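Re: the pair you flagged

First of the two:
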Amino acid sequence: MAQPELASLFAPVSAALERVERGLWAAVADEDPEVMAPVVHLLGAGGKRIRPALVLLGAWVGDGGGQTAVDVAVAAELIHTATLVHDDIIDRAPVRRGVPTVHAQWGERVAVLAGDALFARAFTLLGDTGDPRLVAAMARAVYGTCQGEIRQNLDARTGRVPSEVDYFTRIGRKTALLIAECVRAGGIAGGVSGSALDALYDFGYHAGLAYQVVDDLLDIAAAAPEVGKAVGADLADGVVTLPVIRALSRLPESSPDRWLVAAAARGEVQPAAVRHLLDRTGALRSVAETAAELVEQARRDVRGLEPAAREQFEQLAAYLARRTA
């Protein structure tokens, strides 16, 4: 369930979020409880429910969307959960949301199938809405997520250090697109159209970029208990994120410090060994500033909405800039 601060930010759709929570459990119910036990395990560990809340807030800008908005919100969380299950396999992550990952407890084969089952349940719900725009929106999001993840893993496999442009393209696909499509799909369910619908999408995209940039910063700078998962996992796996890209750009080619950071980017040096270098170069501070700039862009995206809706989305954007987990 949502954290207290998020519960306040989601207040306009709190009743609908309760329906989403019930819908999630209904969606993973099965005549054979053991089949969906791995998914129940992860859902039971909680989660911020940001994506379903964004669907509902998008619908709230219009007429609320009724049951359609709730079903789309449930589908959005199922899709997000499926991507987490698969990501954890790829990353060999032992912990998610403070509990063992699905593959760590049930094995990779079961985890892959559990993720696939979640995708299937999500698209069944979307298809049952009878609105092909909603199916198409989430299909685009899943495809984009796969594109971003494939690029990330290809780069990690070859040791390629992406440019900043490449980095933002990657996180746009793997993270921001799903968030943007969630907000827009909610707007579609709520009867929003025209420039207001475009504003919802743009807000979601820039907020999603900010969310991932902050996540990448936390992976370097936070402590494990704060984020509920292993810290430094990306760098240990050779996944180069913005803090490392910025640090490398600020270190002279011949610097031993640059060699050390580059070695960490190849997974040859423990992340803890270079954290102080990322801080000393100003890379961590610079990345935090970039996240704040993206948040401000998201705030500007919704300035044309009605005052109540604009304020709600602005507050949500501000949360992204100061979150610690």
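Second of the two:
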Amino acid sequence: MAPGWDVLELGPEDGPTVLCLPGALCSAEFFRDLADEPRMAGVRLVAASLPGHGGSKPQGDLSVADHARLVAGLAEEVGATVVLGHSLGANVALEVVASGRWRGPVVLLAPSLSRADESLVPRALDRLGQVFFDLPFRAALRIAGLSLPRDLPAERHRALAADLRRNDPHHVRLSLHAYLDYLDLHGSVAERLCHAAVPAWVVHGTKDHVGLTRTERDTLARCPHVTVVTVPGARHFLAVERPEVVAGLVHDALGATT
């Protein structure tokens, strides 16, 4: 494995490989629930924390474009058949295929295709960070566990909340600002996903604060290789909250490669 990556490998070594990219603040641990799903039997999951997130070591400049460059190399190294990303990880996965660095199917859980899609909290934190630097992020990390699904088993909730608190507020501030700059640069990355011309699933829960604009939905509806999925009652952490749904989508993506 390439140095610098914080990786969790689950499943058989000889199975088809799904490279899993967690979201901002999250570590590879956020995909453990998915590996336990019956439909994942025989599938190898390689979950890799994005550099600078979940307590992992930063690499590059923390931008989405640079993350995509690094992830493309990792996808080739592990022999990925599908790339699955959540939130920021989904945006990185989108950029991997949009940049032409990797050409396989992608499953994108709760991506923001524009600044307008993003929830209010990260946008507000970015503005506050331009004035107060790392201070707002230090405060936010102390209560980050409140964003997790409340119905998780208590032990699981504590473990994931502890993972969120492992983040360095300085790295989070820089990464968030770079991420919003990336969205602003393109206005919306919906067209970039369409032009990538790879099988893609764009997935959001009905109770998530992150979503799609009507224009983006119309754009994606015109792309024959993109499937938009809405999960009733689901919130932001789909792989934790609804792993059975995500397992089905991964199964579909693996089928698109045969």
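The chain has a mean pLDDT of 95.

-B.
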